[in-house]
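In the previous lecture we treated proteins in isolation. Real proteins rarely work alone, and many bind small molecules. This record shows how such a complex is specified: first the sequence, then the SMILES for NAP.
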Amino acid sequence: MTTLNEIIDVPRSIDECFNYLLDFSRCQEWDPGVLSARRLQSGPCKEGSRFAVECALPVGSIKLDYSLDRVIPNELLVLTGRSAFFEVLDTIRLKKLGKNQTRIDYTAAFTYNGAASAVTSRMAAAFPSAMDEMGRKALQGLKEALEDNFPAPKQSFRSSLGDKLVLPGMAQFSKLGYKTSRQQFTPLTADLRERHMVITGASSGIGLAAAEELARRGAKLTLVMRNEAKANKVVKQLISDSGNQHIRVELADLSLLAETEALAKRLKRRKEPIDVLVNNAGALFDKQRNTAEGYDESLALLLLSPFTLTTRLLPLLKKSASARVINVVSGGMYTQKLDVAKLYDPNPSGFSGSVAYAQAKRALMIATQEWAHEWQDTNIKVNAMHPGWADTPGVESALPEFYSLMKKGLRTPEQGADTIVWLAAATEAGLVSGELFLDRIPRDPYLVPGTRETEDERDRLLAALQGLHVSGAVAA
Ligand SMILES: NC(=O)c1ccc[n+]([C@@H]2O[C@H](COP(=O)([O-])OP(=O)(O)OC[C@H]3O[C@@H](n4cnc5c(N)ncnc54)[C@H](OP(=O)(O)O)[C@@H]3O)[C@@H](O)[C@H]2O)c1
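The predicted 3D structure, ligand included, written as tokens:
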């Protein structure tokens, strides 16, 4: 048997430490020896929960099947990891040292089994310092994770160059880009249990994946969807998968500004502060269509609606201790220079759904920058993100040729949603405003020469958006 023991003191409440450690799949965030970890069943983590963990070895890797054997809230967690060659018994004891100070005493006891037992135990005995080093690194990782003191994200020379070169830039949108960026991700340990988050378009694709992860992390969610039957099904599933009971639905067709206004009014009547607003709902339309209110549908859904919802919800965002607005844009906007005339009249001589979509996303990016400037002395941070290319029902139906060509390279919806989750949850994400993110890294919003708008064009956009309210086109 080999036994490793490490003790760390961290500046977090015992409840937050326990809550983070209870979901053992998070070990991939803090243990550098873990290649992947996932929960094997849905629902809240409790005694009997199981986790599949893959750990790196000096050569290759090994798969462990972990079970959570004993749970005493805010005191003890005992897990057993079983592999072909050894078993490891992890005993994690927590002790409150102060209101925001906790001691974590972590013991891992390895026993070697089967035919390989003699060889494996001899190897472990021959490399005791390597085993100790492994344990030390893991607990150092856990300490840093719980200290949660990561710097504000910055664009690196590599990511900036990658963005500017066309091929690597496009490759970054694929799942390969996500996998490369992921190597630099830092742990997400912020406690979300008292954070109220509103997510639009949560019934499918990226919005649903963001809602799933934020529900698992304990956030209080208000999910905006337009189809009642679908919404009820989604919420039932989310509650059963996450064990999080704090999930509710608001129904609204966000291509209609009257419904967007009514939604904002209902939320305001609830008086609950909003900590995070995710403007995610969207679609790329193949035909031009005006809504019953007379707006082009792309313009209404992708720009006027998030603009209206955000400005109307400002009082609730201001009530939060620190609020975040996340606007989901698209890499498609890189192809377009803002053209307000085109944006407001997409059918002068032929309609292109992709152009209408990209113009609206470009305009939402500009609104993001303007809001960041306007709110710089407030508690609200606002950023945009683009998900890369993700395999969602929206992409499959709107871009069938692109979808079949790119299918193998597309990200999963979870990978596409990762930056939304990070912007909503990470402590360090609360230090930046007015940026465009891909894979948790700020990116240049202009990559194609000649696509930067003039100051006049920017002013025209802001006047048009503000006119929307001033003219009363949207009822107050
Ligand atoms: N997937 C990608 O590769 C990609 C790339 C760049 C940007 N994006 C952006 O990511 C966001 C999510 O897209 P997705 O790919 O996840 O597409 P998706 O699977 O089609 O999801 C879109 C969501 O928006 C909702 N929605 C659409 N029209 C609505 C309306 N009028 N009122 C209320 N909700 C409405 C949909 O509701 P229903 O279920 O009722 O239709 C759904 O929940 C969009 O803003 C999109 O532009 C995606």
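Summary for your notes: The chain has two domains: 2-147, 157-470. The CA atoms of residues 121 and 294 lie 75 Å apart.
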